[in-house]
């Protein structure tokens, strides 16, 4: 093992300054060697001989409609239950979360089936019993009506504009106030008056207005009020911020967190969301395309909430395109958690999948491609990956159904890669597939050792798509450092096995804290705030890996507490080596990197560390950056060795480049805490 006098001198000085060793430096050195210093060596072959390309698609994102990730999350629609369908098709139905402003003497609200939209017949009928001043039953000064609180409060911000659309009908003239107010309605944040003659609204009419907020409240609501007696119907009420990502309806702050991970693929829309507890409640793409006001919406019975399906099949492809990720569409294969379609009857599902593919990539004159084109995207989306179901391999009809899908899709679209639900990590598959899906949720210590799960996977079969992984249960709480470090070790193993592991994504991606159906998650948010859990930040250490080159490296030392890997990548035409190492132990580790390379010496350029004082620490709304990567720049001299400190409970990365390339880069991103070494 190579040791450096300069290095030990530095350690001594540091410990001396911290007052944690004797004033006698020789004692200090001896103590440090015996007690604090654990050294390991990473033998790194940077020559061309043992390099291996890492797939372009290796690291991506799995977006599932779970935890209100989409409805009340990424999808920026502010109104919840905008079509009044969530209460079911039997009338009168529950209008939750809509609420009534006024009492039974002044207003009567009920649902009926009078909507002009065939696939969502429920509308809200409001009978205003009071009238303007002077009548025998005068309305309260603020009027009576209904309000929608959105998803646990709307985030209305001063100076921002919101596009409000609704459908209305009345038997008389209308005089309505459409307003954003504070959560209890006491403060008006924006308001417009809508007046129309009976003749203008005797049939359903669409109204659109822009509300500009003159105040801020992240728990605001949208309300319709009036002081005019009469009968009014409402349907399909939408309020969306004018400022969404590329104007496509995605919440800016949440999508930015996705983009920052540089995802190479986007798996969607589930998960169990695709399956449903019952087939009748599964995500069926045809119900989610076309004009938003005509979509029926559906109750996702696995995660137990209604979605208006504003974030539908088209929007998922748009999302993938907008974040620069390849779409991976998971479709229902005729199997839910509790019921299934026998293989002999599965053809309608097969046709539905073929149609869904045509929707994405058929030309604008094709039957379904034309629907996409009419929605504003005449160019096909680049769909190259589909998954036949989710976690259904053990179901009796899975294999039979799968083969029907496989044959039909390969016949029409031979280039599409098909993902099977059956695990082939330790034994060959009994059916054809391009990828096999692999999900793992476990404890940190288990995931740590599972970094070897693919060491012995047959190299001649389908590639692994690790589409869901996470440390969960008590080890993770709601997303702590311990979980993240277990995941980091697992990812290092996947990176090393990326000749057989083709795609990797964490799950779940998002959680709205008002509906934590599944914890932990990578990104935590409410209507106005968000933060990444340590698991999110671990993924950020792998943003350079997709399409990079794996270098052959061997760790000499105790691999039960440290795992490391090395890649080389290019950015701005310059070559870098990146070493990543996780230390799950309680002591600092000194990692000596011994590079075997014939040409110029490498220099440390950038160091990044994710750690915290307690391995159970978590980020929170009150302390969102407690555990985020700490970046620092460093230059080394010719004489310095590549000797790095891995703090206790940490993930570190070290970007190296050769002397010819040294430049100082500004680190401007706001989340980064920058310090000098
Ligand atoms: O990620 C949460 C759930 O875990 C997914 O819906 C499912 O595929 C898995 O069981």
Number of domains: 3
CATH architecture level-2 label of the largest domain: Alpha-Beta Barrel
The largest sheet is: 11 strands, mixed
Overall geometry? globular
Name of the CATH superfamily of the largest domain: Glycosidases
Residues in helix, %: 10-25%
CATH class of the largest domain: Alpha Beta
Radius of gyration: 29 Å
Distance between the termini: 25 Å
Oligomer: single chain
What percentage of amino acids are in beta strands? 25-35%
Hetero ligands: alpha-L-arabinofuranose
How many distinct helices? Answer: 12
Reported by name, the CATH topology of the largest domain is TIM Barrel
Which structural class is indicated by helix and strand composition? alpha/beta
Mean pLDDT: 91
Count of DSSP E strands?
35
Low-pLDDT segments: 1-34, 662-677
Family: Belongs to the glycosyl hydrolase 51 family.
Catalytic activity: Hydrolysis of terminal non-reducing alpha-L-arabinofuranoside residues in alpha-L-arabinosides
Signal peptide: 1-23
Domain Alpha-L-arabinofuranosidase C-terminal: 467-650
């Amino acid at each position: 093992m190579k040791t450096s006098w300069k290095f030990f001198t530095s350690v001594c000085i540091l410990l001396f300054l911290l007052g944690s060793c004797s004033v006698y430096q020789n004692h200090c050195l001896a103590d440090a060697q015996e007690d604090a210093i654990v050294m390991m060596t990473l033998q790194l072959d940077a020559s061309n001989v043992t390099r291996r390309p890492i797939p372009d698609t290796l690291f991506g994102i799995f977006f599932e409609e779970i935890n209100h990730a989409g409805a009340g999350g990424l999808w920026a629609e502010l109104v919840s239950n905008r079509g009044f369908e969530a209460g079911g098709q039997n009338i009168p139905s529950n209008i939750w979360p809509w609420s009534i402003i006024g009492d039974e003497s002044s207003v009567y609200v009920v649902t009926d089936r009078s909507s002009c939209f065939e696939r969502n017949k429920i509308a809200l009928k409001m009978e205003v019993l009071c009238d303007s001043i002077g009548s025998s039953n005068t309305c309260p000064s603020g009027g009576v009506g209904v309000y929608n609180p959105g998803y646990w409060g709307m985030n209305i911000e001063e100076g921002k504009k919101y596009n409000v659309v609704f459908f209305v009908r009345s038997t008389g003239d209308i005089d309505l106030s459409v307003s954003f107010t504070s959560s209890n309605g006491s403060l008006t944040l924006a308001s417009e008056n809508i007046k129309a003659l009976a003749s203008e609204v005797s049939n359903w009419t669409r109204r659109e207005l822009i509300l500009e907020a003159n105040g801020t409240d992240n728990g605001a609501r949208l309300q319709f009020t009036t002081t005019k007696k009469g009968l009014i119907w409402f349907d399909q009420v939408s309020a969306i911020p004018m400022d969404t990502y590329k104007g496509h309806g995605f919440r800016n702050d949440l999508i930015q967190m996705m983009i920052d991970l540089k995802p190479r693929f986007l798996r969607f829309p589930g998960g169990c969301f695709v399956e449903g507890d019952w087939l009748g409640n599964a995500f069926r793409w045809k119900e989610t395309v076309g004009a938003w006001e005509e979509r029926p919406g559906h109750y996702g019975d696995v995660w137990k909430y209604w979605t208006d399906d504003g974030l539908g099949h088209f929007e998922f492809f748009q999302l993938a395109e907008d974040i620069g990720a390849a779409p991976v569409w998971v479709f229902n294969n005729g199997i839910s958690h509790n019921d299934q379609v026998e293989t002999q009857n599965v053809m309608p599902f097969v046709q539905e999948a073929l149609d869904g593919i045509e929707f994405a990539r058929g030309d604008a004159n094709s039957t379904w491609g034309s629907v996409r084109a009419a929605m504003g995207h005449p160019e096909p989306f680049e769909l190259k990956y589909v998954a036949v179901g989710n976690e259904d391999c053990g179901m009796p009809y899975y294999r039979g159904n799968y083969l029907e899908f496989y044959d039909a899709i390969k016949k029409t679209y031979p280039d599409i890669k098909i993902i099977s639900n059956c695990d082939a990590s330790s034994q060959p598959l009994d059916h054809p597939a391009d990828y096999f899906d692999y999900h793992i949720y476990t404890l940190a210590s288990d995931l740590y050792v599972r970094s070897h799960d693919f060491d012995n996977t047959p190299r001649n079969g389908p590639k692994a798509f690790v589409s869901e992984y996470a440390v969960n249960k008590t080890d993770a709480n709601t997303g702590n450092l311990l979980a993240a470090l277990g995941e980091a070790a697992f990812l290092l193993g996947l990176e090393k096995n990326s000749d057989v592991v083709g795609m990797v994504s964490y799950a779940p991606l998002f959680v709205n804290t008002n509906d934590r159906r599944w914890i932990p998650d990578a990104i935590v948010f409410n209507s106005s705030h968000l933060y990444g859990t340590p698991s999110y930040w671990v993924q950020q250490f792998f943003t350079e890996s997709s399409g990079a080159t794996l270098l052959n490296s061997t760790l000499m030392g105790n691999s039960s507490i440290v795992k490391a890997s090395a890649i080389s990548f290019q950015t701005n035409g310059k070559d870098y080596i990146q070493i990543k190492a996780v230390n799950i132990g309680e002591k600092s580790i000194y990692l000596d990197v011994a590079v075997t390379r014939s040409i110029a010496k490498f220099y440390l350029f950038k160091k990044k560390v994710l750690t915290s004082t307690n391995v159970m620490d978590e980020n929170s709304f009150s302390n969102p950056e407690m555990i985020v990567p700490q970046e620092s720049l460093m230059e080394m001299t010719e004489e310095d060795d590549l000797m790095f400190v891995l703090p206790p409970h940490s993930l570190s990365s070290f970007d190296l480049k050769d002397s010819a390339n040294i430049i100082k880069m500004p680190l401007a991103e706001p989340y980064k805490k920058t310090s000098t070494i």
